[in-house]
Amino acid sequence: MGLKGALGKFFRKYFFNPKWRCLLCGREVFEGENFCEKCYAKLPFNDGAICEHCGRKVIAFEPYCTTCKNVIISLDLCRSVFSYEKPISALIQKFKYGNGRYLADYFSECVANLYLKNYLNADGLLYVPMFEKDERKRGYNQSKLLAEKVSLKVNVPLIDCLKKIKETKRQATLSRLERLKNLDGAFRVTDKKSVKDKTLVLIDDVTTTGATAEVIASRLKKAGAKIVYLLTVASIPPIDKY
Ligand SMILES: [Zn+2]
Ligand SMILES: [Zn+2]
Question: Which of 104, 123, 129, 182 to pair with 148, CA 20 to 30 A apart?
């Protein structure tokens, strides 16, 4: 990298204000806007046919898609702002693995709107905890960042009552059944009183098969929670699309 490249990198790092730039292409945008018109038109909003239960994009409205039929039972309802497709998938990758914490501002705004749009009336918001060592390695927990910001926007308190007590394999390569087995005993409710008889909303970045959220919801229900909803930035459509 020449001096010019190095200087450019330095300026981008320290003087680049992501608030005035399109989050995807970097083009200048009006104050308060997150995307330029061109990129906004490409966003995969999850506002078409969805599985009424897990909220993932399917070909036709169904009460239950093939993934959550008979399996997602502790989660009462799940909804996501986007379908996990380009270009939003790239932004989420950046948020998760590319130190893109600033994206929490935009994503939390979307999730807060989703909360309001679904008329959810929760007593508390929760996030998916990370294993301590993993969180230290990444430097932040993206689910917690989101939940904290959503909590302020919708004025519902954050209940910090979940702990991840087991290191688990990365889920990406595992089947649904393997995921559930992998997650067995991974989470603990540290303060049962804080969730008893409560309506709760779990906040996360992506729903893949819903296994993690389902395992957490089942712990919460065992601890006495009344209703558990899941809101995510994006969800991956079922493989067979039904
Ligand atoms: Zn753009
Ligand atoms: Zn479903």
Answer: 182
